[in-house]
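Revision sheet: structure tokens.
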Amino acid sequence: MGRILTPLRESHGESNIGIVCKTDGLCESVADSGPQNPGGVATWGFFICDEEGRPIAKDSGVIGKGVGMGHMVAEYEAVLQALSYLIREKRTKEQVVVQNDNQQLVLEMKGEKKFDGGLHESRYYEAKRLTSLFPSICYKQVDRELIWEADCLTWKEYRRFLSEQRSLI
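Predicted:
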């Protein structure tokens, strides 16, 4: 991790405009014949903007590959990274909407689906903890087309990972 994330535009204190966190995760095959989900390459991406679509920040990364990786691990990592960014930037008092295309994640975070464990267990509990730091936050399931920025970031990281793996051969 160790890199410094630069905001896409300056923040001038709190505003009345809400924050939209578009988050997405991906777990795909390492090789054409390899495992995809679980066990593939897990990547995450987030795109944060105000409710009018003006960019605030974006970031993405690779979580890992193989054992312990799955699409829910990736989906939750994207949420964790987005919320952590807002906490670091002291933007917890603003209204926040977390958008994701994964129904399970949204229902679990809203408390409408019982969490039954899984590879993403530690990330689920950490997401619940971070969520509790925001007085006004909600989770909303949306179509992938509405979080296309985050989706593109996950695929960018996946392609970069594969490219780096090929260059090692």
